[in-house]
Amino acid sequence: MADAFRRHDLLDVEPGAWEAALASRTDLDGAPHVADWVRRGFPVIVRRRHPGEAAGPVPVGLPLPPADGKRRIGLALPPGSVQARAPVAAARAVAAAPEAWRPVLEDLDGLGRRHGVVPHLFGGLLWQHLTGLAYLSATSDLDLLWPVSGAVPPGLLDGIAAIEAGAPMRLDGEILLPDGSGVNWRELRAAEPGASVLVKGIDRAALRPADAVLAGGAV
């Protein structure tokens, strides 16, 4: 079912369903990599639904590399045509990262271990790791997801900020909450007591009290 999937989930697609989806998208004719995307074993990623988009199909997307226009392509696929793929831990993609990023990835992995959280990838490094195509440039961010099972571990947000202070790139990304929604880690860290933060899910975005989010009560 579509409801089983959450924003940022990686999905493998049945090749026939991919071909059927592309058949109705003449705007994608000739788009680099797209026709062969699934055949080459590349996944898609669950995105937010657009306003008014039907709730039945699974909303997915893929980004093209910067050299091919950096276009973000959105599709909607039948739930039965996709299967979840395990997320990619940041530590698994060290070999695909620029050399200057590698110590940062190791530090982030260590931070996650200390707090019982495994940082996962999305964004350029994820796609460079999965596809072998060039997604990163000298100005790229490192995009990370920090899935928590309850309250946000004390010290985690400050730990991310401390690592970023000495990193050659910006650390972007979200804390993934138990209900599958996400909140920007930087916004959550900067929130004053009593303030609200924007929490994003697959269907909507809503303001939630930051204190409740930190306590794991953003549902």
Describe the protein in words.
By secondary structure, the protein is an alpha+beta fold. It is 24% helix and 23% strand. It is built from six helices and eleven strands. The chain has helices spanning 15-23, 102-115, 124-131, 156-165, 185-190, 210-214; strands spanning 10-13, 44-46, 58-63, 72-77, 82-85, 120-122, 142-147, 171-176, 182-184, 196-200, 205-209. A hairpin with a 5-residue loop joins β8 (171-176) and β9 (182-184). The radius of gyration is 18 Å and the shape is globular. It starts with 9 loop residues before the first strand and ends in a 5-residue tail after the last helix. The model has no long low-confidence stretch (mean pLDDT 95).
Provide the structure class: alpha+beta
Radius of gyration: 18 Å
Strand order of the largest sheet: 6-7-8-9-10-11
> What about the largest sheet?
6 strands, mixed
Q: Indicate the multimeric state.
A: single chain
**Secondary structure: helix percent:** 10-25%
Gross morphology is: globular
Strand and helix order: EHEEEEHEHEHEEHEEH
Q: How many helical elements?
A: 6
Poorly predicted regions are: none
What's the overall average pLDDT, rounded?
A: 95
Strand content: 15-25%
Number of strands: 11
Straight-line distance between termini: 20 Å
Produce a short descriptive summary.
The protein has 219 residues and is of the alpha+beta class.
